[in-house]
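Fold tokens
===========
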Amino acid sequence: MNEHADQSLDAGGEHPPARRPRALLVLVALLAAEALLVWVAAGWLIFELLTATPASMASAAAILVLVLVAALWVSAIAWGALRGRSWIRGAALTWQLVQIFVAIGAFQGLYARVDIGWALLLPSLAVIVLLFTPRVLAATRPA
């Protein structure tokens, strides 16, 4: 290899990634914020499990495990989006649909929380729109 070819390779021996489109960076930021909030929820559940006595320890543990799996999943989606992986589109869409259904539940019922409903619904709709923009589709196509 010549000197110029060696300089264009990063430490891992791969070519550095092309400049990421702004829409992809916004998508990554939204997914990362969602992941962070799910991690916060997991931390809160752990805190509650350690400081309060749940009505059912089995149910509390099961919910904690589900939230931890969700946190890992959304974190992986955000990381995959940053790297431009094609599999993130289906995974991110699935997560957004889950959030939309939770938001719908937050809008209704005895313990309705409209603020939480909107806080879940609006970012989910934004992520869905971003997932299907031409630049994000191009950035997450297999090479």
Summary: The mean pLDDT is 89. DSSP finds six helices and no strands in the chain.
